[in-house]
């Protein structure tokens, strides 16, 4: 890499140094701890919501509140996405989430039996989670794009998905144990500590190169400078394609997460441990997706061509099977296929835009993904509440089939230096 970059570069790459490898480790630890907290807290809050209300629809509403606020606010604030210190933004959002988890723990300990108050506090926590994650993702995309070469960034994003899902596996597993023992307050306190620890890990991981990247003099081509207006995104068919085909996998993954509680209650009534098991196997499927893509065992081109048809087939299978072990196996496969597609979309989100558009485009893509998650989550809760689990999976299969057909017709093409195999031919 030359020592002097043209003015169009948003962030200078880090100088090669021994700290570079340790920075990758701290990034990985950040994703693991943050996802540990998020996964464990989500299991507890969704189960608590269902236990207090016995309403699948309300679970869908709670999940929607975890994404819709980001979708509504993202377009208003996207012009700020490439400004300021990305590392500070990412740390601050996780610190805020730690405080929210503590508030949830205190509320449940002091007045957990008051249904209306508990549901209100859970709903507000979901809103804060949505907004914090929006700014967090934009900041992380800026940090990764500025600190790593394209190919290395692609691998880090795939590895981070595996790290995130590893954290979610342990978080969901411990949450299942906590639910079985009635340790809900302790589980929420554990989530708060994990969020705080992840913020500390990111602080160590971004020491050095992050400061150099973020303190570049403000120029006409450096949107990171706080004193200039953001450069608007120059829309192209490649960018629009990333947005369009982020919808089916982002939506399907959240559809599956939303439907897990009623699915577990249908297959294995009154067994919270089976709900935790379904969480673990679906997260394990996502973990394997990250491993396969980060090691090159599966190419992005194959994922983009086959993930959606496989999702259709496995969704129909979940509508037909009712044996507990078969449901778990098919759910694992569905999570694997969908998460592979999600990872490819995340990589393209980081690699396709121009350097000065990374933060803004990450916010816009987060808006689209959040809307998809909100719509799919609400649809899952509504369909399960009115028609049952089987019909919900049939509808998911039909919706995904439409996007699979659209892929065959549009055949979008992404040619970026760091994403081999992503061009559809």
Describe this protein with a few key phrases.
77% helix; globular; mainly alpha; 425 residues
Indicate the percent of residues in helices: over 70%
* Rg computed from alpha carbons, rounded to a whole number of angstroms: 21 Å
The portion of residues forming beta strands comes to under 5%
Question: What series of H and E elements makes up the topology?
Answer: HHHHHHHHHHHHHHH
Q: How many β-strand runs?
A: 0
Average per-residue pLDDT, rounded, comes to 76
**What structural class results from the helix and strand content?**
mainly alpha
Low-pLDDT residue intervals, each spanning 5 or more residues: 1-19, 210-228, 416-425
Distance between the termini: 31 Å
Shape: globular
- Describe the largest sheet: none
Number of helical segments with 4 or more residues: 15
What does this structure look like?
The chain is mostly helical and 425 residues long. The chain has helices at 19-53, 56-65, 68-77, 86-111, 115-147, 150-181, 184-205, 209-214, 237-244, 247-267, 272-294, 300-320, 324-351, 358-386, 389-410. The protein is globular.
């Amino acid at each position: 890499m030359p020592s002097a970059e043209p003015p169009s570069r948003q962030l200078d790459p880090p100088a090669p140094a021994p700290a570079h490898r340790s920075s990758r480790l701290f990034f990985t630890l950040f994703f693991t701890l943050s996802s540990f907290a998020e996964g464990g807290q989500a299991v507890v809050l969704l189960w608590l919501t269902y236990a207090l209300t016995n309403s699948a629809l309300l679970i869908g509403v709670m999940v929607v509140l975890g994404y819709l606020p980001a979708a509504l606010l993202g377009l208003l604030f996207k012009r700020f996405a490439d400004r300021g210190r990305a590392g500070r933004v990412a740390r601050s959002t996780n610190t805020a989430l730690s405080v929210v988890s503590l508030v949830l723990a205190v509320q449940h300990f002091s007045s957990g039996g008051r249904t209306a108050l508990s549901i209100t506090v859970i709903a507000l926590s979901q809103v804060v989670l949505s907004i914090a994650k929006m700014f967090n993702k934009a900041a992380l995309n800026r940090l990764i794009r500025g600190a790593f070469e394209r190919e290395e960034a692609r691998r880090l994003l795939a590895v981070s998905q595996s790290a995130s899902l590893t954290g979610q596996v342990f978080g969901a597993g411990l949450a299942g144990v906590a639910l079985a023992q009635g340790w809900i307050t302790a589980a929420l306190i554990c989530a708060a500590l994990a969020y705080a620890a992840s913020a500390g890990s990111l602080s160590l991981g971004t020491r050095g190169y992050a400061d150099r990247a973020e303190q570049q003099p403000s120029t006409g081509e450096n949107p990171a400078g706080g004193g200039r207006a953001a450069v608007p995104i120059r829309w192209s068919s490649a960018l629009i394609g990333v947005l369009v085909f982020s919808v089916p996998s982002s939506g399907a993954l959240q559809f599956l997460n939303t439907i897990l509680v009623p699915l577990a209650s249908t297959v294995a009534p009154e067994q919270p441990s089976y709900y935790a098991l379904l969480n673990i196997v679906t997260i394990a499927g996502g973990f394997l997706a990250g491993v396969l893509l980060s090691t090159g065992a599966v190419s992005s081109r194959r994922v983009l061509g086959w993930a959606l048809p496989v999702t259709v087939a496995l969704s129909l299978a979940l509508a037909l099977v009712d044996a507990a072990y078969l449901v778990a196996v098919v759910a694992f496969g569905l999570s694997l296929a969908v998460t592979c597609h999600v990872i490819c979309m995340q990589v393209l989100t980081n690699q396709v835009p121009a350097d000065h558009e990374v933060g803004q485009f990450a916010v816009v893509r987060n808006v689209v993904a959040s809307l998809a998650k909100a719509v799919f989550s609400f649809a899952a809760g509504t369909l399960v509440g009115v028609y049952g689990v089987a019909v919900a999976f049939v509808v998911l299969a039909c919706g995904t089939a439409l996007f699979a057909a659209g892929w065959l017709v549009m055949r979008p093409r992404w040619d970026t230096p760091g994403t081999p195999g992503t061009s559809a031919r």
